[in-house]
Amino acid sequence: MTPNSLEIVTDWLVTAGLRPTRQRVALAELLVGDGKHRHVTAESLFDAAKDTGAAVSLATVYNTLRAFCDAGVLQEITVDGSKSYFDTNTHDHPHFFWEDEGRLTDAPSDQLVIQRVPDAPEGVEIASVDVVIRLRKINR
Ligand SMILES: [Zn+2]
Predict the structure, then answer these.
(1) pLDDT surpassing 90 at residue 73
(2) Which residues form a coiled coil (predicted)?
């Protein structure tokens, strides 16, 4: 880990209010260590961790991603009932889902205009609005 990425990772965990365990530091480095935003699944992060030689299980990766979400430093985006993506950019923004590749990327926020959303039913409020635009290849 470079001094710069160590600082980013440490700041991120402090912001999250999470104790910097070895596994959290290793996973946080893969998520935000280069200072860029990314979208991961538990499986893709697990594979990336294995590549670096980090000794973590898929269950640990999943639990750690949950802890980061609960702490507000990650955003979960559910694309279909079973598949969750985790985004280090926690600000509201739309996504493209590339169906052929199972990949989630950011869509340009400045091109999205939401005029109105339905009123929330009695007794509840809208917690968030997820915009996922599904893409598929055009076969010509
Ligand atoms: Zn995103």
Answers:
(1) yes
(2) none
